[in-house]
Amino acid sequence: MTKPSKDKLLVPCHICEAVNEADKEDKVYCRRCGCKIYDKKSKSFQTSLAFLITAIIFYIPANIFPILKTYSLGQEEENTIMGGIIYLWEHGSYPIAVIVFLASVTIPIIKFIMLFFLLFWKKLNIKPTLAFKSKMYHLAEFIGPWSMIDVFVVAILSALIHFNIASIKPGFAATSFALSVIFTMLSALTYDKRLLEE
Amino acid sequence: MNESELDKLTICRKCHTVYEKKPLKEGEKAVCKICNTVLYRYHKRLLDKIIALSGANIIFFFLFLFFPIVTVDIETSSNQMSVMQIVIELFKNDFWLVAILVTLSVILFPLSIHILYFLSALSLKLKIGKKVSKQLLKILSHLLPWSMSDIFLISFFVAMVKLIGYARIHFGIALLALSAFVAIDIYLTKYLRIKYLWEKYDETVKR
């Protein structure tokens, strides 16, 4: 078997997982499915960074504004994401409080940090190994959608509870949180895979 | 390196270590030395399994969508709902963006994914329409990250826990269907991974 020469890289396609040979060229398209693996012309870095910044901007109102409005016997109560978690904890639903805390607070923040690191490791003057970077990318991609839990919970509750004596209405934070999750997922998907291989 | 040499290689999807593939016997799997990720498995009758499971899951899909998933009683009022009604309710409440998101990630994408699995495996099995099966596989690969039925199931349980103490809850038949759907979905996407279908596609094209 001929070994790949030194100026050639072996890269996986992120769509069909075929092994591709990359020259020192600036673009590689998968030999099997034809999807882009990386292309310097396509400005993946800027796109990914733009999506990430948008996600962070949406994450701020998601934490400030109420995610849930409860009307019960004429009384109105508003809950933010953190408020809801504290409420669950105080009422003894510890496992659920932990799940919601992980999904809506820890995961988004960890994912922002990971994507920032993956985008800017070159400028930070550190040289992480290929294995470290790709494991991190894989993790960021995997945990991303799990922060949708809180949004789905609000959606289900608001659809189920609309009685005369009690009703639940979604707040503005739910929408902005959902947008934040979608934009982090887009940021991970448009991420320039060349930065992984370098 | 030429195509057939590249085809003999595999790259660990987690840590990007390059390996040369070796043929496996039944029940064996190849594991990455460095991070212990499964590189590939021996799948007996892969296409048959995919056709059967995705076909079954399309049926489970309609069961969980249209049958009541839960009944909530508060005092004397009662409210029975299916997943479809939950989504319609979201649209009625002008919760547009989340309503659209739920429609896409819990209804449209999971359904399309299973239909695409079914059709692409069937076209590979019958060895018809190579170009079509490539297109089907391509769309399927792009849709996979956007399916969130598993997250919806977990969210449903979290929502039910939040209701304990406020309301009496009776689960409906759709909850079983949704659980079955999610279990098969995970088996299809994480165990019988799409990469094996791509390899089958390679085999039929190159033969």
Unreliable sequence segments of chain A: none
Major pleated sheet of chain B: 3 strands, antiparallel
Count of DSSP helices of chain A?
7
Instruction: Give the neighbour order of strands across the main sheet of chain A.
Output: 6-5-7
Task: Give the end-to-end Cα distance of chain B, rounded to a whole number of Å.
Answer: 20 Å
Radius of gyration of chain B: 21 Å
What's the CATH topology label of the largest domain in chain A? Butyryl-CoA Dehydrogenase, subunit A, domain 3
Number of helices of chain B: 8
Q: What percent of the residues of chain B sit in helical stretches (DSSP H or I)?
A: 55-70%
Number of domains of chain A: 2
CATH architecture of the largest domain in chain A: Up-down Bundle
Mean pLDDT reading of chain A:
87
The dominant shape of chain B is elongated
**Fraction in beta strands of chain B:** 5-15%
Tell me about this structure:
The complex is a heterodimer of chains A (198) and B (207). By secondary structure, chain A is of the alpha+beta class. Chain A folds into 2 domains: 1-42, no CATH class; 43-197, Butyryl-CoA Dehydrogenase, subunit A, domain 3 (Up-down Bundle). Helices cover 54% and strands 15% of the residues of chain A. Chain A has helices spanning 44-64, 81-90, 94-120, 130-143, 149-160, 172-190, 194-197; strands spanning 9-12, 19-22, 27-29, 36-39, 68-72, 75-79, 166-170. In chain A, strand 1 and strand 2 (19-22) form a beta hairpin. Chain A is elongated and about 70 Å long. Chain B has 207 residues and is an alpha+beta fold. Chain B folds into 2 domains: 1-42, no CATH class; 45-206, no CATH class. Helix content of chain B is 61%, strand content 14%. Chain B has 8 helices and 7 strands. In chain B, the strands form 3 sheets. A 3-stranded antiparallel β-sheet of chain B has the order 6-5-7. Chain B has a two-stranded antiparallel sheet with strand order 1-2. Chain B has a two-stranded antiparallel sheet with strand order 3-4. In chain B, a hairpin with a 6-residue loop joins strand 1 and strand 2 (18-20). In chain B, helix 2 (46-66) packs antiparallel against helix 4, helix 3 packs antiparallel against helix 4 (96-125) and helix 4 (96-125) packs antiparallel against helix 5 (130-143). The chains are: A alpha+beta (198), B alpha+beta (207). The interface between A and B is large, with 63 and 64 residues.
